[in-house]
Structure formats: C-alpha cells, structure tokens
C-alpha cells in the first residue's frame, strides 16, 4: 500500500510540473521574440541618431564653405549592413542612408541635409567607433561640376 502512495505522489508531481512547463514555455518564447524586436528597434534608433549627427555636421561645414573641415567621432550600432552618402549610389545627393537589418527585413534609415554631399563610408563594417572626416570641397570628387561636402572615414 505504501508503494502505491509514493507512485501516486510522483505522478501528481509530474502532472503539476507538466502543466507548469506548458504555461512557462510559451511565455519564454514570447519574451525572446520581444527582446529581438527591441534590439532591432534600438539599432534603428541609434542609426538615426548617427545619421542625423553626420547630416548636422555636414550642414555646418557646408555653410562655412571651402576649406572648412571637421572630424567627427561616431559609434556604429549593431546590424548596420551599409552606409550610403549622397544617395544609394554614393554620388552627389542630399542624404545619409544607413541600411539596417531588422527582424522584419532591411530598413533604410535616412537623414537629409540641404547641402550637396558625397563620400564613401563603405569600408565601415561592424560595430565600432570611427573617426569621420567631413570637409567642404570647391569641386566634388565624384562630380567636378558642383561643390559639395565630402564625407570619408579617417585613415588611422
């Protein structure tokens, strides 16, 4: 009779733990999904801040004209796949575009500047701190017919 009571209590404990796991596992999965979405949102927000900072400096340098120059320190957030200056072809334009990978697919984060800008930040890969040269040019290297603000990574 004593063996039956131990078997019954073991079975009751097993059933109780099973119900607890049935409730806990979906909660844990939901939490991981929410954390993943939060990380994507954070990368996008940080990218917007960096793009806006670069656009602001480009506007300031462009307003001063040639030979104005400024070095900017930026922190590239995770999940940034590419950075385009000017437009998506890296020619003269008015945008700084960060291509950010999110859980919903690629997201393009854009900052606008009224100045003609051009440059190349294609060598920037991975999360790190970079020094960026922002300089006013009387003739843009990618299009000699116009003046622009040229943005490149500082070589160390």
List the helices and strands and how they pair.
Layout: H1 2-64, E1 69-75, E2 80-86, E3 93-102, E4 105-120, E5 129-137, E6 148-153
Parallel strand pairs: 4-6
Antiparallel strand pairs: 1-5, 2-3, 3-4, 5-6
Task: Tally the helices.
Answer: 1
* Measured distance between first and last alpha carbons: 81 Å
State the low-pLDDT regions, or none.
none
Oligomer: single chain
Structural class: alpha+beta
Element string (H = helix, E = strand): HEEEEEE
Gyration radius from CA atoms, angstroms? 26 Å
Question: How many β-strand stretches?
Answer: 6
Give the DSSP E fraction (strand runs of 2 or more residues).
Answer: 35-45%
Sum up the overall morphology in one term: rod-shaped
User: Strands of the largest sheet, in order across it?
Assistant: 1-5-6-4-3-2
What value does the average pLDDT take?
81
Binned, the helix content reads 40-55%
Number of separate structural domains: 1
Largest sheet: 6 strands, mixed
Q: Explain this structure to me?
A:
This protein is α+β, with helices and mostly antiparallel strands. It has one domain (32-153). Helices cover 40% and strands 35% of the residues. The protein has 1 helix and 6 strands; from the N terminus they run αββββββ. It has one helix at residues 2-64; strands at residues 69-75, 80-86, 93-102, 105-120, 129-137, 148-153. A 6-stranded mixed sheet has the order 1-5-6-4-3-2. It is rod-shaped and about 90 Å long. The mean pLDDT is 81.
């Amino acid at each position: 009779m004593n063996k039956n009571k131990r078997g019954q209590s073991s079975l009751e404990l097993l059933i109780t733990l099973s119900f607890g796991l049935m409730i806990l596992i979906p909660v844990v999965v939901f939490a991981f999904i929410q954390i993943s979405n939060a990380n994507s949102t954070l990368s996008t927000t940080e990218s917007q801040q960096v793009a806006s900072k670069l656009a602001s400096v480009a506007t300031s340098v462009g307003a001063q004209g040639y030979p104005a120059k400024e070095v900017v320190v930026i922190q590239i957030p995770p999940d940034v796949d590419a950075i385009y200056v000017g437009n998506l072809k890296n020619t003269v334009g008015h945008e700084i575009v960060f291509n950010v990978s999110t859980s919903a697919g690629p997201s393009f984060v854009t900052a606008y500047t009224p100045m003609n800008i051009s440059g190349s930040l294609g060598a920037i890969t991975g999360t790190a701190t970079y020094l960026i040269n922002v300089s006013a040019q009387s003739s843009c290297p990618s299009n000699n017919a116009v003046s622009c603000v040229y943005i490149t990574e500082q070589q160390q």
